[in-house]
Design brief:
45 residues, mainly alpha, 1 helix
C-alpha cells in the first residue's frame, strides 16, 4: 500500500505472514540439523 506521502507501508497481515515463513524456515533447518547431525553438527558450522 502506498501512503499519500509516497512511502511504502507493508500490510500487517502480509508482514506477519512473511515473518512466520522466515521463522518457520529457520526452525525447520535447525530441526533438520539436530535430527541428522546431532549436537556435534554445531562444531562443523
Amino acid at each position: 500500500m502506498h501512503s499519500p506521502a509516497g512511502t511504502t507501508t507493508v500490510e500487517p497481515s502480509g508482514a506477519r505472514l512473511l515473518m512466520m515463513r522466515i521463522v518457520g524456515a529457520v526452525i525447520a533447518i535447525i530441526a533438520l540439523l539436530m535430527a541428522f547431525g546431532g549436537p556435534m553438527v554445531f562444531f562443523y558450522i
